[in-house]
UniProtKB/TrEMBL annotation:
Pfam families: Fimbrial. It comes from the Bacteria. This is Fimbrial-type adhesion domain-containing protein. InterPro entries: Adhesion_dom_fimbrial, Adhesion_dom_fimbrial_sf, Adhesion_dom_sf, Bact_Fimbrial_Adh_Pro. It comes from Chania multitudinisentens RB-25. One of its GO terms (biological process) is cell adhesion involved in single-species biofilm formation.
Amino acid sequence: MWILRFSLLAAGLSSYLSIAFAAGGDVAFRGTLLEPPPCTINSGNNITVDFGVKVGVKKVDGVNYMQDINYDLVCEPNTHSWVLKLKLTGNSTSFDNAAVQTNISNLGIKILRDGQPFVLGSEITTTPASKPQLKAVPVQKPGVLLTEGAFEAAVTLQADYQ
């Protein structure tokens, strides 16, 4: 009986103590919304890379026919230490995630940034003053013979402060 009373007393006391030591307080939130400074690539104009009309179906190897992607990157002054991200989006080939699919099956255009593959959908950190050098080169699916024909492909190059 004594144990039962002690247990009930202890249970009631612990309930009282948890109520007695509970505390509450308000939380206030505040901040400032900022718009990152705008950037433009190539003054908003399309960038064209022309491989010409003499791309040999047996010479596409990821080295031959490499072309520079000439573009300008202009951003308004960055006064809040925003990080500038450059992103390339498009439909990648099934055989190389850094190559955009052309209208000819098994032929893609691989994009390189400073000599390294620029994987479609990935972001890189950069600055307007030290933008990466971009190059494009035709590539083909290994072990496949390409067919003749005019080819084209498109990607979107986007610069945003984050």
